[in-house]
């Protein structure tokens, strides 16, 4: 009996300490003990490299936590639904502070932070100033919660909208992706938080991410899949995370050609590379030799595990020093700078930050269709509004992978609509599962808002490991997130829309999701469709503001919505090998002269705009010049609104194969009714170049180029002219 009690006591003590350990988020000062001025960083690092022991150096190359991290993450994720900071490279003896990692991109995942709309939604704002302010808040909240390393700059290109993690990234176009990536990076890094761009490279299939081998040719890699990385590198991103997949036959984490020849020697990246977690590398020696610096989240193949290979001569101390140097130089550069402000806990999800989440959600929503101008609904003329669908009451802000955390609050669509109509009209709700209840709710309503789409079960990060996934069937992955095999709504949602449309003429569908949803089966049955995304903590309020016209919708699609899936590149979520071709998204639609359901850059407004013929200042340029284009944009309707003017360059006269056109500038313009503004759009001739695989150089062709300006990528929305580079 006594023994049993003692055993129970010990077990309880163990469980108690595990919980205490999990909840304990040590409040570490992120500044290094050794103060080094920015100019002396290199000197100090060289000194450290001479004086540190090998053991201490190896410590810099892996996460600090052992296997107990799993316990901690399990408890924190399962119970308090927040991540914990993960540290790497703490060395008090040598005065070196650790990397203190928090994930993103919806916000800082290690606490109840401001929960922004997902990155794909933010891409739909086409607003780099806003994205920079989002980064600013993320940076502040990172520091207020003791993180100094932000793993949330996800810039993998959306080659196919079925990609499970599409929501974390910025769409199908490298230019838009790069501009948004730079905006968030600069916003975050101004707070001396090191931003990490991920996942390098070609990671855009989720279910097979741990093993798929992505084959790519030299031009496609550089012109399509890396330009956005080049843009964040040029903007000074501190760090890069390698992808799990293989590229051209080698895991990215072991890929010397990719991490050293391309990333460092060709693209000029000077920061450090961390591994994607747990399965990012399998061989420490290969990884170090390839240029992969820090293994995360813990020492599995690197760190002290490398000692043995150094002893036996397979790895040299010079190889180790190269990595340690990059880590120390970057850390010291960021962690020794003066801070622009003081970071206190009350910054986390404060009123101003939550307002920014609202602004981002409002600007992100895309009005896809608005027949007979059903929207905006006039609050004063309504007596009963029906809200339908399980997602109308859902507090999900995206998937439940690494970007997930539980914010202070989430306003659901039903709450937002109810608040907006409070005292004006009644709001009735049905989840749509009971036909009788549905009929009673919908039949005599003035308008019906159906909230339909996806959640963490249908799309998102896929958390099974490689061994478990090989050889699986579609049935094995149903309801487990990951990639979408079909881009249509779930059958139950399509049936629901069908039922509702038979009962009421005034139907608005608000779509929840992180990427393209094919609407062809039902879009003619309803009046209005809004792409509302995973819209963050303020999403319900934003949706109501759009529906009732307090805010004029202004979002534009950051991807093409096809009519059917066979218009898209092949997409096999279980692929062991895949070749990424030169065309996808709008370049593929242009090339094959296909008509999309909704074009890249499409989005309606409650007002109308006219965009003038573009005027080019100087129609003959040299390759060192900048093209200056002026257009006049006028709000020709009755309400104020924002329009996003897009500029594409056309390559019809190229001597080599090139896309018909590529986005090269865009600007969001706010206009009052009747107001017009002249805007200047610039493009450097250098940004019209192509990669010549024979000379291994970027070249600007001397020829006549086309210039397109308008409010979507579709020809009918674009004004055309031309200019010459000679
Ligand atoms: C994801 C990364 C993430 C990391 C840590 C990995 O599974 O692929 O994007 O940063 O986990 O959360």
Question: SSE layout and pairings?
Answer:
Layout: H1 2-23, H2 41-51, H3 54-59, H4 68-80, E1 86-88, E2 99-102, H5 119-123, H6 128-144, E3 149-154, H7 174-189, E4 194-200, E5 213-215, H8 218-225, H9 227-234, E6 239-242, E7 246-247, E8 250-251, H10 256-266, E9 272-274, H11 284-290, H12 307-311, H13 317-335, H14 351-364, E10 366-370, E11 384-388, H15 413-421, E12 426-430, H16 435-442, E13 447-453, H17 466-469, H18 474-477, H19 491-503, E14 507-512, E15 528-531, H20 539-547, E16 577-579, H21 585-591, E17 609-611, E18 615-616, E19 620-621, E20 626-635, E21 641-650, E22 661-671, E23 676-684, E24 690-692, E25 697-699, E26 703-710, E27 718-725
Parallel strand pairs: 2-3, 3-4, 4-6, 5-7, 5-16, 6-9, 11-12, 11-13, 13-14, 14-15, 19-27
Antiparallel strand pairs: 1-2, 7-8, 10-15, 17-20, 18-20, 20-23, 21-22, 21-26, 24-25, 26-27
Helix pairs in contact: 1-4, 2-13, 6-7, 6-14, 7-9, 10-11, 14-20, 15-20
Bound molecules: beta-D-glucopyranose.
């Amino acid at each position: 009996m006594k023994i049993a009690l003692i055993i129970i006591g010990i077990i309880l003590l163990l469980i108690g300490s595990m919980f205490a350990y999990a909840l304990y988020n040590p409040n570490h000062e992120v500044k290094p003990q050794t103060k080094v001025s920015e100019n002396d960083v290199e000197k100090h690092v060289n000194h450290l490299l001479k004086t540190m022991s090998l053991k201490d150096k190896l410590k810099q190359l892996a996460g600090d936590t052992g296997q107990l991290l799993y316990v901690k993450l399990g408890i924190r994720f399962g119970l308090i639904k927040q991540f914990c900071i993960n540290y790497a490279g703490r060395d008090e003896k040598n005065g070196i502070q650790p990397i203190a990692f928090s994930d993103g991109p919806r916000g800082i995942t290690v606490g109840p932070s401001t929960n922004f709309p997902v990155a794909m939604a933010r891409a739909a704002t086409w607003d780099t100033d806003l994205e920079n302010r989002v980064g600013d808040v993320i940076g502040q909240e990172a520091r207020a919660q003791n993180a100094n390393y932000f793993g949330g700059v996800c810039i993998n290109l959306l080659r196919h909208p079925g990609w499970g993690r599409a929501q974390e990234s910025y769409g199908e176009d490298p230019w838009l992706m790069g501009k948004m990536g730079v905006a968030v990076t600069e916003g975050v890094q101004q707070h001396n938080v090191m931003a990490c761009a991920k996942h390098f490279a070609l990671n855009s299939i989720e279910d097979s991410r741990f093993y798929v081998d992505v084959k790519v040719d030299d031009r496609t890699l550089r012109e399509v899949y890396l330009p956005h990385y080049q843009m964040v590198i040029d903007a000074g991103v501190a760090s890069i995370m390698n992808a799990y997949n293989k590229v051209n036959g080698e895991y990215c984490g072991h890929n010397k050609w990719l991490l050293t020849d391309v990333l460092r020697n060709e693209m000029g990246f000077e920061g450090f590379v961390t591994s994607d977690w747990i399965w990012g590398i399998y061989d420490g020696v290969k990884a170090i030799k390839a240029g992969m610096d820090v293994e995360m989240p813990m020492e599995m193949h690197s760190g002290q595990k490398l000692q043995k290979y150094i002893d036996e001569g397979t790895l040299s101390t010079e190889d180790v020093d190269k990595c340690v140097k990059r880590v120390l130089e970057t850390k010291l550069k960021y962690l020794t700078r003066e801070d622009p402000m003081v970071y206190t806990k009350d910054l986390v999800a404060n009123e101003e930050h939550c307002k920014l989440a609202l602004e981002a959600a409002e600007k992100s929503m895309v009005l896809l269709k608005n027949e007979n101008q059903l929207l905006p609904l006039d609050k004063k003329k309504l007596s009963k509004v029906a809200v339908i669908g399980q997602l109308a009451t859902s507090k999900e802000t995206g998937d439940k992978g690494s970007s997930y955390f539980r914010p202070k609050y989430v306003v659901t669509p039903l709450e937002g609509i109810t608040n907006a109509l409070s005292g004006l009209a009644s709001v009735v709700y049905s989840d749509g599962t009971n036909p009788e209840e549905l009929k009673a709710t919908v039949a005599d309503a003035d308008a019906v808002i159906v909230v339909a789409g996806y959640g963490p079960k249908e799309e998102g990060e896929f958390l099974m490991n490689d061994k478990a996934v090989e050889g699986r069937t579609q049935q094995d992955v149903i309801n487990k997130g990951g990639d979408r095999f079909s881009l249509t709504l779930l059958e139950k949602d399509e049936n629901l829309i069908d039922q509702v449309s038979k009962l009421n003429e005034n139907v608005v569908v608000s779509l929840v999701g992180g990427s393209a949803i094919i609407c062809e089966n039902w879009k003619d049955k309803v009046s209005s469709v809004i792409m509302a995304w995973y819209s963050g903590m303020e999403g319900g309020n934003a949706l109501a503001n759009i529906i009732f016209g307090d805010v004029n919708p202004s979002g534009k699609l950051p991807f093409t919505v096809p009519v059917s899936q066979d218009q898209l590149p092949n997409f096999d979520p279980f692929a062991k090998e895949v070749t990424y071709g030169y065309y996808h998204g709008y370049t593929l639609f242009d090339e094959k002269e296909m008509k999309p359901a909704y074009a890249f850059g499409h989005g309606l407004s409650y007002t109308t705009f006219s965009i003038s013929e573009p005027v080019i200042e100087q129609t003959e340029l040299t390759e060192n010049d900048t093209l200056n284009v002026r257009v006049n944009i006028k709000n020709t309707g009755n309400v104020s609104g924002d329009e996003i003017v897009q500029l594409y360059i056309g390559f019809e006269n190229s001597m080599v194969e090139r896309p018909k056109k590529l986005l090269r500038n865009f600007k969001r313009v706010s206009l009052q009714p009747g107001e017009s503004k002249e805007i200047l759009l610039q493009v450097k001739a250098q940004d019209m170049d192509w990669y010549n695989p024979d000379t291994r150089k970027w070249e600007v062709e001397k020829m006549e180029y086309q210039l397109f300006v308008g409010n979507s990528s579709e020809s009918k929305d674009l004004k055309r002219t031309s200019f010459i580079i000679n």
